[in-house]
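Q: Could you fold this chain for me?
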Amino acid sequence: MRRRTLLFTAISTFLATVASMPLVAQESDEEENYRLEEVVVTAQKRVESIQEVPISISVYSGDFLEDTGVKTLEDVARLAPNFYISNSSQQTNNRIVIRGVGSVGNSGIEPSVGVFIDGVYYPRPGSVIGTMLDVESVEVLRGPQGTLFGRNTPMGALNITTRNPTDEKNASFELGYGNYNALELGAMVSGPLGETVSGRFAIKYADRDGYGHNTFDGKDFGARDDLVMRGKLNFDFSDNLSLLLTVDYAEINSEGTAIEVLNSTSNPVFNGTLNALFGQNAETDDPYDWKINQDHRDTLNDEQYGFSADLNYDFANGIRLRSITAVRNWEAAVFESAIRITTDIAPRITDYETDTFSQEFQLISAGGETIDWVAGLFYYDESYDIVQAFNAGDSYCIPVVFAILGATAAGQCLQFPQDRFTESFFEQDLESFAAYGQATWNISESWAITLGGRWTDDQKDGDFIQAITNPFAALVRAPEEVLGMQRDDTKFTYFTNASWFVTDETMLFATYSTGYKSGGFNSEGGGVPLGQKRIFGPEETTNYELGIKSTLLEGTMTANVTAYRTDLDDFQDRLFDGLSFVVVNAGKLRQQGIEADINWMPMRQLRLMAGISYLDSEYLSFANAPGLPGGPSQDLKGERKTYSPEWQTSLAGDWTGTLSESMQWFVGAGWQFVDDQNIGANSSNNPQSVQKSYSLFNGRVGISANSGKWDLTLYGNNLTDEGYCITIYDQPLGGALGALDPVNNTMVQRCVVGAPRTYNLKLRWWY
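A: Sure. Below is the predicted structure, expressed as structure tokens.
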């Protein structure tokens, strides 16, 4: 009710404001000659052309993302080379991957890919899975970026900028509807509120029915609704002093996703056990059809809010002092039918909460001088709490305990608590200090050398308690208490780069840089107490790049290509103990390859884009790696890492034509190809977890006003209804339920299914 009230109050405010505004139409370009529009980025803390920034970066404007129907960061990952986002059975537990490396979600591990929105660091992947709102640009930066950002980014960063208040009054409204009763409502209003004050407010609400059907209870599942809104106030106190205040709120409510048995891993013993105990098994004919036969009561309630103050002061000599102060809170409550069989057994309840405070100071030179430089100080404080519990469910004591331990044990099991019969508490406090700087010596109009450095000190304290209120919960969790865990990690990392403009429109660059991610604590309980193994060590990254950025064909094409090699020491990976994951330091890993971004406008009405990446992955050392199901540990030296497809390609095109004097038509298409890759949640390289290559086709067609006042678009995603897995993992409690084949070292696998074919029609107005 509160969410609906917020929505209708906000839209009423928008409509009242729009009623008093004059209409503003977009101007048309009537020049005979044409070039690709200049793409600017802020990756180096000042506005620059992407063709002049000597790093591997892909950038997408907010207009392009809105035109092509991109709604979330997962959609952006379908465009950018060497960028991937995977989901797990727990919807908040996303993995953001660049060059095949990404941290494992909302555990105590630090992200490998940093996410920054309007200069503010977002620490948990689960807090950025919602609908994007009023975005100015999304930059995907590959390779360590720690010398210019507040928090360490050992594999890359997502630098997202949202739109600021405008000096002129303008507004927009959008309405969309699609299959699965998908409804979208969005609005924005911006303009001056006084002589020195301007404001902007944007809101979006999305709601849809579920994609799936559960034959076990006859119900549909997977419904989801998102609400996100942001307000900004900009104060121009003088020509050299300004303050931007931002407040945002976002909420997600969801019924989970499809977790199906991967039929190629079917085990007759598993099916026989389920039939004997519960009368039916959990399999369906097609693992990608969004039809399941299992207990599924998954829910997600995700809520976050934040406030930031961005103060800028320009000195007389052009140097800018910038202060970014931010506080954020993220909470998520997750209920999962974790075992996913045809009975209520051991459902999992997890509550996450993160409170953060950050303060960053930057000094930025004017730019365009012999030496351009940036210096910064960063303070970060995070409190992270995870409370996780399992209920016994209706079928834990009988028939499971009965079948394993007998009638007496089953009767005793029923005498103990059934709700929250095991519960864990994880608390972590992080305090981080960092100083960073980067300077570019512009030796001539053609040559430049950049040096950067960062000193980081991370101090972490953590406690973990696993309490057992029912002794028969030992099948799920073991009692454990590890208090007073500590880590104090200090590291200096650096960045070196040389660039050479061979011509005015062709630049070569070379980079050598290092990255770092501090150690931490395992936050999940397990079947075996970990003790001091709950503490894992830091991860270090060494990165080499050679690249070219070129503007071709009289400005109608850009082609940017980077060859890279990234070496990781003590890579933070994880193993699976049957019901939970344990982070370990995995030796040495090498990721190397080539990535390319190509944009081409062969005629004014036609634009083509391509993102292509080749990735060669190899563990240089990984002794005592997780074993295959039921097998001993193994040495994975020379093997490929998970989530590292050899080829990843995206192609997109847009074509526009005249329909009448007042209207035009447009059509667009996109294709994404992902090569074979092992997407197992466990790093055992189990061949059962290989997802074969697949392709996704998207398209759009519509009409728009030549004035730019409105457009109407029909979007289609996954038009061929391709079936594929996003993540694959072992059947929980597989050993106890007969899913394990210890002779062949195989296990029944679970597939987190990708979204089916969807389409929607959207109308947008601009005022």
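A (continued): The first strand starts at residue 40 and ends at 41.
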